[in-house]
Amino acid sequence: MDFNDIINDFIEKYPDYKSDVINFSEYVEKYWENSLSGDSLRILLKGIDVDFILQSLIYNVETIKRYKSKTKAKRYATVIGQFFNYVRKTTDIGNSDLYDAISYNRLRENSYMQQMMSYIDKCEMLAGIVEQEPLTSTEAEKMLKWANEQLTAHEWEDTTSFRKAMAAIGIKMMMLYGITYRELRKMKWSDYDEIYACIMVNEFELRLPLKLSIQLKNMRKFVFNRKIINDENLLFADFHGESWNDITSSSGIPDYMGALIGITSVTSIVKYGISQLLKAGLSDSVIKKVTGASEKLIQGCLLHEDNELKQIINTKVLMADWYYEF
Question: Which CATH architecture has domain 137-307?
């Protein structure tokens, strides 16, 4: 077993995390004087704790000044947590204290993210406040896969499975159309056209992908057969017909996100959806009308390290007049 092999396998699976995990690897190589393979590597990985990872962040912030914003520092902490989740799942190397700390709810005092955020929030060398970035393509893929898994069955006969299924529909809507949670809660079953596979959002008739259309059709059949309908005919409700309230936790989405990708802000999903609309060439004014998002939210919807955006820009530049004469 070799450390670089684990790193490369992780990057191959999660390419969006490349820069942060390489920065962590650099710190490990600098401060671990023994071999990074075989038994020596096992000793290292078994002994790494939250403080070691925190020191790696401090090194990147204070010593070499690689991270200058709280948002970037938080992203680093999240990625390294994901990396050790990967180590736990793909190797037989035990480190229960670290794995448990990473898996704990971030509100718990001794959780991994609580300890990392304690430093990030107080660090005067880090600028700004922690802003939630859009989901990366890796995170979006994970969320979409999870959502589809919740909707494979056509029966959701208990509170938990139904809650997950409704959350899955909501997640897919936000990822696809960039709809804010506030606008999502307003959707009614009467907005959904089962025959033409469309849904009305803020007076825009939006076409549904085939898979989502079928999933929504199955959900509608279940809801109406079981009479899980509220007085306002709102689409997003719990097993007893109680509509989602204005706090996102009522939907369950933050809990499912946190367990899956270590992020609990629904804003990340909305920003991902809006980023796709921006890449498709929709204007800010149209996006604002469709999604209900503020201008400030729209402006923060593109990742700085976005390879897909780079490809789109370069493709469009190629179409410029006289490009090959420049």
Answer: Orthogonal Bundle (1.10)
